[in-house]
């Protein structure tokens, strides 16, 4: 079970994993990649490493980590951090141990102009054919 926890410290979030005798969530969402990076000025190799280490160093033994890049409560990654970092941040989340979590559309760099746009559903499909995923498929036109 995943749980959405809003807490001020990593220690508070870790309590939601529970204990060996009284397990709670399989994982509480790790919002520190959102909370610690509001703009490119906050982002560096050192700050990313510190945020990853903060979670891993406090993770209870035998518990599963996760990496949340975006959610419905925040502006999208491309709007917060820029479109040039989408691929790198998604790659990082996929290569870290644990479960990567993304909000629909973030994997293709969908942006927004505010929180109201973030909540729009369903995600609009890109206007270009097949998103460049497979050029062997028939293309329109």
Short description:
This protein is 30% helix and 7% strand. It has 141 residues and is mainly alpha-helical.
Total tally of structural domains? 1
Structural class: mainly alpha
Main sheet? Answer: 2 strands, parallel
* SSE string, helices as H and strands as E: EHEHHEHHEH
Evaluate the radius of gyration: 17 Å
Protein name: Glycosyl hydrolase family 13 catalytic domain-containing protein
InterPro entries: GH, GH13_cat_dom
Domain Glycosyl hydrolase family 13 catalytic: 1-110
Pfam family, one: Alpha-amylase
Protein model, in words:
There is one protein chain. With 141 residues, the protein is mainly alpha-helical. The protein has one domain (2-108). The protein has 6 helices and 4 strands; from the N terminus they run βαβααβααβα. The chain is globular. Helices cover 30% and strands 7% of the residues. The model is unreliable at 116-121 (pLDDT under 50). β1 (2-3), α1 and β2 (27-28) form a beta-alpha-beta unit. Strands 1-2 form a two-stranded parallel sheet. The chain has a two-stranded parallel ribbon with strand order 3-4. Residues 1-110 form the Glycosyl hydrolase family 13 catalytic domain. One of its GO terms (biological process) is carbohydrate metabolic process. It holds the Pfam family Alpha-amylase.
């Amino acid at each position: 079970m995943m749980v959405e926890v809003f807490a001020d410290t990593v220690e508070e979030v870790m309590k939601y994993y529970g204990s060996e005798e009284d397990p709670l969530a399989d994982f509480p969402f790790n919002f520190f990649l959102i909370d610690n990076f509001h703009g490119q000025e906050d982002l560096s190799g050192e700050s990313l490493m510190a945020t990853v280490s903060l979670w891993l160093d406090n993770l209870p033994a035998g518990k599963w980590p996760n990496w949340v890049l975006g959610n419905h409560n925040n502006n999208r990654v491309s709007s917060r951090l820029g479109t040039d970092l989408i691929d790198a941040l998604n790659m990082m989340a996929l290569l870290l141990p644990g479960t990567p979590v993304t909000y629909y559309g973030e994997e293709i760099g969908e942006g927004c102009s505010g929180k109201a746009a973030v909540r729009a559903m369903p995600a609009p499909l890109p206007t270009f054919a097949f998103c460049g995923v497979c050029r062997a498929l028939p293309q329109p036109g």
